[in-house]
């Protein structure tokens, strides 16, 4: 992670983040108006991966309350460096079971729950940390039935069983569902269709689990489609922080 920036650099970066945030806020607001939804029904989560803790602190100062990370190695020290900021930390990346203990130390919500073994690992970690972790089932619309997709996520027909596993697990709370627009399969290039399917899955999930209201969908490129399709949480990175080097 880069060293703390100087005062002038920090002021310039803060102004840049404020301008980007304002643009994203405007996009969410317009999408809500167009969809006949209330602005407060959509929560912005800023994805801070690859950007330093100093940016996270600036965002907190600009009123951001929800941030997300996708790699534990990067997230753990960043969350520690921002422990005094009033932030909710979301974990949105593929998660190995041996990282569950670390993630349970700082993440309030894990959006990428996609297999029973991970539920077991997170549950053990949450109990040990004496914390409750909110879980979202990540749905992959390009995964084969009964398997986990390449970028994480369970096939739609696996959601019910996994939701039951989360509900039965100590230390975990079932909060909802999440998806990333698929790059392959029949819904590739059709984010809105994927997000609508996610909402249908959410609707049937809520019949059995009424508290599982979160629908996490939409990123910088497709947040309008997500809002239109009923997302309650959008995960926006590059539109707020700037283009990342194309590593991930
Ligand atoms: C990086 C990431 C985002 C944000 O993507 P942008 O295109 O930068 O907005 C959202 N969700 C997940 C799971 C991510 O890994």
Automatic annotation (TrEMBL):
One Pfam family this sequence matches: Ala_racemase_N
Cofactor section: pyridoxal 5'-phosphate
InterPro entries: Ala_racemase_N, PLP-binding_barrel, PyrdxlP_homeostasis
Keywords assigned: Pyridoxal phosphate
Alphabetical list of CDD domains matching this protein: PLPDE_III_YBL036c_like
Annotated Alanine racemase N-terminal domain residues: 23-245
A single MF term (Gene Ontology): pyridoxal phosphate binding
Family statement drawn from the similarity comment of this UniProt entry: Belongs to the pyridoxal phosphate-binding protein YggS/PROSC family.
Biological role: Pyridoxal 5'-phosphate (PLP)-binding protein, which is involved in PLP homeostasis.
Protein name: Pyridoxal phosphate homeostasis protein
Organism: Streptomyces albus
């Amino acid at each position: 992670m880069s060293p703390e920036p100087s005062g002038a650099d920090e002021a310039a970066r803060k102004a840049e983040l404020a301008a980007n945030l304002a643009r994203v806020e405007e996009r969410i607001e317009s999408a809500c108006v167009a969809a006949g939804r209330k602005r407060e029904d959509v929560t912005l989560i800023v994805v801070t991966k690859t950007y330093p803790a100093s940016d996270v602190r600036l965002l907190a100062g600009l009123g951001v309350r929800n941030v997300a990370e996708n790699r534990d190695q990067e997230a753990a020290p960043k969350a520690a460096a921002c422990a005094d900021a009033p932030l909710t930390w979301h974990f949105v990346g593929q998660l190995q079971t041996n990282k569950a203990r670390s993630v349970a130390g700082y993440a309030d919500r894990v959006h990428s729950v996609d297999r029973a073994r991970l539920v077991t690992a997170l549950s053990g970690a949450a109990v040990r940390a004496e914390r409750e972790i909110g879980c979202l089932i990540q749905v992959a619309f390009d995964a084969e039935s009964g398997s986990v997709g390449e970028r994480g996520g369970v096939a739609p027909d696996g959601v019910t069983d996994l939701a039951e596993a989360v509900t039965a697990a100590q230390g975990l709370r079932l909060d909802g569902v999440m998806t990333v627009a698929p790059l392959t399969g029949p819904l590739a290039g059709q984010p809105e269709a994927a997000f609508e399917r996610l909402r249908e899955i959410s609707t049937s999930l809520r019949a059995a689990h009424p508290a599982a209201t979160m629908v996490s969908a939409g990123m910088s490129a497709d947040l309008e489609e997500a809002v239109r399709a009923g997302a309650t949480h959008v995960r926006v990175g590059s539109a707020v922080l700037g283009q990342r080097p194309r590593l991930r």
